[in-house]
């Protein structure tokens, strides 16, 4: 297996890891206000998250940024909770500020999430002569993994809202409330306290 493929698969596994489902929750929180026809907006959100994630992974790998890992493990569920809360209080995608704040969340909170995996990736990349290709492969794997999450979520959303007839606003509120509850539990379980 080549180096690119190895890191690509590592990126996919990282984002789809059910043991560390924080990324899955965040992607679901970002997507909760959208439906299938909003796929372009969702693609931009997911890519913004990957860009933010990539920036801090690169900075941490190059030892340009160092942050307390316990703080980051606390901040990751905070970002999820904030996103879910915004969904609850403004549960409909709009062409105005609602969408803009989601883009901000995706990019800025992606920076925080990237720091959460940086120590592990830094230890792996420490053995590599160049970090550019492994970082690119890893981040492309992240993007593919996120698109898998988005596709599954949109499929479930389309089935329940479109075919079964569940109210879209209620769907958004229920999903966001579940994500909020899980993120609060994650905050309480961190070693930051």
TrEMBL record:
Entry-linked InterPro entries: Put_HupE_UreJ
UniProt key word Lipoprotein: no
Record carries keyword Lyase: no
Short name of any one Pfam family annotated for the protein: HupE_UreJ_2
Highest rank taxon of the organism: Bacteria
Keywords: Membrane, Transmembrane, Transmembrane helix
Membrane spanning residue stretches: 15-35, 42-65, 71-89, 101-121, 144-164, 171-188
Protein name: HupE / UreJ protein
Species: Rhodonellum ikkaensis
